[in-house]
Write a structure and sequence with these properties.
It is built from 3 helices and 5 strands. The protein is of the alpha+beta class. The protein folds into 2 domains: 43 residues, no CATH class; 39 residues, no CATH class. The longest helix has 13 residues. The radius of gyration is 14 Å and the shape is elongated.
């Protein structure tokens, strides 16, 4: 309920809402249902050094299907602003 209220409050102020600390698919699905605009967290990647992040962005940009690519992990499709 608190997360829902925070998301609705941000949207009512015309802000893009970002959820940090997403660690599970269940959390991601809840945030999707609540129409959170953006998410980040260990579910997608642990922190990486700047040069590795640059390579990650290059690999994602080069992906023919727009998949979010992490080395050694299966791609995750990006839909809107929230990855699947």
């Amino acid at each position: 309920m608190l997360v829902d209220t925070a998301i609705r409050m941000g949207k009512s102020l015309g802000l893009a809402v970002i959820a940090e600390g997403v660690e599970t698919l269940e959390q991601l699905q809840i945030l999707r249902t609540l129409e959170c605009d953006f998410v980040q967290g260990y579910y997608f990647s642990q922190p990486v050094p700047a040069d590795a992040f640059s390579q990650l962005l290059d690999a994602t940009a080069a992906s023919a299907d727009g998949a979010f690519v992490l080395p050694g992990k299966p791609p995750r499709q990006l839909q809107g602003s929230v990855a699947t």
